[in-house]
Amino acid sequence: KNYLNFKNFFKINFFSISYPLLLVLSFSNYWNLCKLRESYVNTNNVVSNNDQSNIRIDNLISTLQNRSFSADDDLNSEDIRINTRIDELISENKQSNIRIDNLISTLQNRSFSADDDLNSEDIRINTRIDELISENKQSNIRIDNLISTLQNRSFSADDDLNSEDIRINTRIDELISENKQSNIRIGKESLFSLNEDCIDGKWNVAIGPNTQHSLCNATQNIAVGRSAQYVLKEGNSNIAIGIDSQRNLNQGKNNIGLGNNVMYESKKGYRNIAIGSNALHANLEGTGNIAIGYLSGYGGRNSNFNAERTNKNTWIGNYTGKSVSKNINESIAIGHGAKNDKSNQVVIGNKNIKETTLNGKVFVDGIILKKGNIDLVSKINMLQKKVEALESNFK
After folding, report:
1. For the whole model, what pTM was predicted?
2. Which pLDDT band, with edges at 50, 70 and 90, does 163 fall under?
3. What is the DSSP string of 262-308?
4. Which of 69, 148, 206, 248 could join 211 via S-S bond, C-beta 3.0 to 4.6 A?
């Protein structure tokens, strides 16, 4: 009975020792390095259980030795078998301890190998991190070089643009200079408004203060005298000689004004000739007029009959056309103070003329005598018919 109890006891302890070892081996193979610490804990538990088994075996041996040796030979034989079995168990226990030590050594070696692998992986990771840091530094260097290159290109582009602006401004200055050089100006603020926008303002002559002051796109004009052609902006081939000559002429071509204040109030005119102080002074618009003489074609500031819009008229002599109608065309007045008051009229002399001599042949379409309203042509025709009748009677 004691033997059976001891045998069962030993089997239970043996399996209690072997089963944790099998679990430790299976867990170590399954989890490998990930559960390394848990494997150590299980190993320590196995060692602790083995120590407890040894203590219980020692206690059992001590108990058996203290028993009475009075048993019979069968009991001694049984004891011998028990002792033999105990030795076997002890041997097995030693072998188990050897396997446990081997397992611990294997686990330690694996741990060291895992540590070495981890260290090697750490070294590779750190090496890769260093490589990435180096690549990042190189990238930053390339970026800095690129930024520097772009900045240099930007500065170069700015320099090119500035150089181009300088060339353009220089060319504009040259064009302005050429334009100014193609014009002649003498006097304060003469050709004052001429600038780079006045492309067609060329070959003008301005002599005197404020001459051609507003001129821009006008060509081949001559102004001599203070404020002559002052407001002229567009036109060509106009000549104004004298103070305020053609002063308010804004548009015009081929006008000639000689004398102070000639064509003074004219704003638009073409092919007009005004010679003499204040000639055609108030003619606002007109074409093809000729006024020669002081105040020719002008009745004075207070006159209500100044020529304002007239065309193709001729006034020759001082005061000719004085108090003339505002709007007449193709009329002629010759002589001091001769007045023409309607279109298509010829007036020679003034009221003080007593006699007019016409040498050579004079061809007249019709003659009307103002005194007595005698129609001389009709009378002559009647006389001619009577003469023809008398001649026929004599025959």
Report:
1. 0.51
2. confident
3. TTTT-SEEES-EEESTTTTTT--EEES-EEESTTTT---TT-S---S
4. 206
